[in-house]
Amino acid sequence: MGKKVTIRDIAKESGVSTTTVSRLLNHVEGYCSKDTEQRVWAAIERLNYHPSKIARSLVTQKTNLIGVIFPDIYNSFFQDLFRGVEEYASRLGYQLILCNTDGNSKKERDYLLSLAENLTDGIIISTSNAKDDNTTIVDLHKKGFPIVTVERYGKELKDVPRILFANREAEEQVVDYLYRSGHRRIAYISGPSNAVNANRRQEGFRNGLSKNGLLVDDSLILTGDYKLESGQECMRRLLDEHGCGDRKKPDFTAVMAGNDLMAIGAVRAILERGLQIPDDISVIGCDGTMLADLIRPQIGTIRLGGIEMGKKAAEYLISEIKSEDTGEKKVIFQPQLHLDGRIKTIEE
Amino acid sequence: MGKKVTIRDIAKESGVSTTTVSRLLNHVEGYCSKDTEQRVWAAIERLNYHPSKIARSLVTQKTNLIGVIFPDIYNSFFQDLFRGVEEYASRLGYQLILCNTDGNSKKERDYLLSLAENLTDGIIISTSNAKDDNTTIVDLHKKGFPIVTVERYGKELKDVPRILFANREAEEQVVDYLYRSGHRRIAYISGPSNAVNANRRQEGFRNGLSKNGLLVDDSLILTGDYKLESGQECMRRLLDEHGCGDRKKPDFTAVMAGNDLMAIGAVRAILERGLQIPDDISVIGCDGTMLADLIRPQIGTIRLGGIEMGKKAAEYLISEIKSEDTGEKKVIFQPQLHLDGRIKTIEE
């Protein structure tokens, strides 16, 4: 390959500064004489120069790129979120670049800084699925860099545009639903204790019990790590410790899990023991993944509305980029329960 | 927010050209006097300037960013591919940016050009899941821009580094396996006819039949669109047209589908009719998705090795970026069959 022609080559060839070339390429007018202008365009043609997006963005300061940062490309909530951002932003001429952090704080910080350093016009960042470090986000926001967070928590984020999900309310509503369906003893498999949303979901479960006058029995609450195997393992323990009567039916009638994958693990453990779903135990996950709809027996789940959250995040971000609306930007998405026909009704 | 301090402000403040500032920031030595150097550093400090990655890359021409372009973030093959690229490239200090094309040729072209215009050091691009247009790829490659393709076909790509999957051999091997297990009549649900890999898979199926001396019966070959519903619909038609005897058992004993999602659709249609898997019909998908392992009854599948393909793609690309190895770069990944215990053995 021949050496790539740069803006400096044009400047040298036409005897002007790189700034002049850059301004011309970006159609900033009245900066040099018509003569000079013609000389530069001639050099551009002679050297067969194609202006790079980077050189252009030095002047326009816009790239029309939006960055999306999330921890796990395998997680369908983040896939939906990305999808929603894309649907909204691509109609407005933005291109998206996506970065995957693996829940690693250093990677997250590095991507934030890379994307913010003029690569993108703004960033949408979701939770890291563990303890979030918000320092860099708050820094960038204070410097005026457009940024929107999704499902991240922390008082320090109060001025940053935010999209949240009502995690507590979601699990509370599931307990309400189970209570109305006649369930009185409900087990819970929680996500990892370092994940804020896992803790909020568990809180919601506990609140739901109390609200309905049910006993909070800690022996029915176990902690997994959001992975399938942990759900299976926790369910085995619950069945070991609470099995009784014929076919070792347990002394609870429903189990809720902090996400769908753990719920599917629970399904496996229940079927291993020859028990029926939902006849012996109703199973409810969270996240509304395709898996929850595909597996048989079907499990109950809670849809978060990732696509809608993504669209809203894009709307907030683009408004920040264009400095259109400087009001507070915060919205909490409400859960959509998918329980009908997936939960056993217990006659009293 | 205060206006962002740029390289031009520093140049103005210290009375030198932007090029001089840029060279200093990039530690290009011997370009100006020590005096000038000190003046520039003082201005940088005074104005509290943080050099942007873009300004830096104007000189170094390296961004340490690798672009990955694929059509569908929901498809687990592409998730695996991305994962593999990331595992390999992040160890070597590269950051990844991912773009989703939706199989839209215009989006694909726009992303290619955006990423190639100095945003990234190189690009890994996978198939668009439909008829691929390779013009821009060949163009970029000819200009010397590092690019690697994954599962893209076309004579025009012969000089471009390529990672391929043995689609034909995969389906041929499944037919061999089914034949050895006693199956003699096998149905096939193909992916869409505009997708090169769908056609290759169907070819492999047909070759497999012929090779084993089995009749190719076109009434047993239907075409879906890689989505679950199309698999269910095709399977219903197969059962309608080929059902016979008690419980309407069909006159074939196995069905292969061009991907796992369509195979899962087929499972639904089979269960709807009260038939058993694999006792009445063995079901085999392709792609080795998590779904194929999670659903019950379990289906057979073929693992493509997306993670390994991603690692190899990253290895090729980084070698291109560093101009280390200029030899031909092409590798064809072989299928890994996951059929044991998922296929009925028919005694003769």
UniProtKB/TrEMBL annotation, chains A, B:
Q: Which domain of life is it from?
A: Bacteria
In terms of InterPro entries, this protein maps to:
HTH_LacI (IPR000843), Lambda_DNA-bd_dom_sf (IPR010982), Peripla_BP/Lac1_sug-bd_dom (IPR001761), Peripla_BP_I (IPR028082)
* Keywords from the named record: DNA-binding, Transcription, Transcription regulation
- The molecule here is called LacI family transcriptional regulator
Which GO terms fall under molecular function for this chain's record? Answer: DNA-binding transcription factor activity; transcription cis-regulatory region binding
Which classification does the entry list for the species? Bacteria, Bacillati, Bacillota, Clostridia, Lachnospirales
Domain annotation HTH lacI-type: ranges: 5-60
Output the Gene3D superfamilies linked to this UniProt entry: 3.40.50.2300, lambda repressor-like DNA-binding domains
Q: Which SMART domains match?
A: HTH_LACI
Pfam assignment, any one: LacI
